[in-house]
């Protein structure tokens, strides 16, 4: 890998099932991640994805590209526009640093209303 290399985009359909399953799997029982009526009472148009699900999807995106032996050393992300059911999040990545077997990748995830996630992943790829 070289600085400036890009990862192929990954489109992830944002379904209600993905949002709720991700919240339950990460033990995030906040009502805004599984109950549309309560999410609306709190000002959201619908349930929305939690940060732990997004973090997992970012990790999956990088390891799908780097291979099964890659080890994520650091994932640092920030959320922006919410991921609502019925939208699609497209993840893209660019290599920003390479040192030996370690690679740093800048990741962006966009949906129909803006940037859902941005951040950096540092991974080690065995030789």
3D structure, described in words:
The chain has 127 residues and is α+β, with helices and mostly antiparallel strands. The chain is 25% helix and 41% strand. The protein is built from three helices and five strands. A five-stranded antiparallel β-sheet has the order 1-3-4-5-2. The chain is elongated.
Give the radius of gyration: 15 Å
Largest sheet: 5 strands, antiparallel
Helix content: 25-40%
What separation lies between the terminal Cα atoms? 12 Å
Shape: elongated
Report low-confidence residues grouped into runs of 5 or more. none
- Give the overall pLDDT as a whole number: 97
- What structural class do you assign from the helix and strand content? alpha+beta
Q: What's the total count of β strands?
A: 5
Number of helical segments with 4 or more residues: 3
Order of helices and strands: EHHHEEEE
In terms of DSSP E residues, the strand content is 35-45%
Strands of the widest sheet, in order across it, are 1-3-4-5-2
Itemize the secondary structure elements and their pairings.
Layout: E1 6-14, H1 16-25, H2 36-41, H3 51-66, E2 71-79, E3 87-99, E4 102-111, E5 114-124
Antiparallel strand pairs: 1-3, 2-5, 3-4, 4-5
């Amino acid at each position: 890998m070289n600085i400036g290399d890009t990862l192929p985009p990954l489109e992830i359909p944002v379904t209600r099932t993905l949002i709720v399953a991700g919240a339950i799997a990460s033990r995030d029982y906040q009502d805004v991640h599984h109950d549309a009526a309560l999410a609306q009472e709190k000002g959201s148009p619908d349930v929305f994805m939690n940060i732990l699900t997004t973090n997992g999807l970012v990790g999956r995106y990088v390891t799908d590209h780097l291979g099964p032996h890659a080890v994520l050393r650091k994932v640092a992300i920030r959320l922006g526009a919410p991921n609502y059911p019925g939208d699609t999040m497209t993840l893209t990545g660019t290599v920003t640093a390479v040192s030996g077997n370690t690679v740093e990748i800048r990741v962006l995830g966009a949906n129909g209303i803006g940037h859902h996630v941005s951040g950096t992943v540092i991974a080690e790829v065995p030789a």
